[in-house]
Amino acid sequence: MNLTETTAYTDRDGIVDAVTRIVEGIDFGNEELLRSAFTEDAVFDLSGIDHSIHAFEPYVGRETVVETLMRTVGTAMDTFHALSNIRVLVDGDTAKLTCYLIGQHHRSGEGPSVETQDHLLLGNRFETDLVRDHDHVWLVRRNRISSRWSVGNPAAAAIRVAD
Asked: With contact defined as beta carbons under 8 Å apart, do 59 and 74 qualify?
């Protein structure tokens, strides 16, 4: 099965699938899957993340979003993200989604392992605006992430902003 393909969905399924493509794209280092989640003019806003972890400016444009997320998270560390408490509001060809995101982060090559317990576990909230494209696939136009809590060592998920 090709993970970037979509099947017949209800609107809610398609909207949830768009956000799931983001987290699975990051967790599996799958740039194509990650790219498939966003509009060309997408904004990925991490400015709500606890600044003790890192201070972020929003990433603007699909290619910038994908390149930055892959470089700083998708290929830079071992991660596991899970979505829950998903709420969806559809209005024609636009939608809003809110959900919780639990993200486990380890240095690359160190997780998951019972031998390496140095990690950063984040409890975040997604606030996402989506649009239905001409192929009837839901895409993320804007995603804002804000911290709710964290446990662990921020250094275990050190963000590499520049190469």
From this structure: no
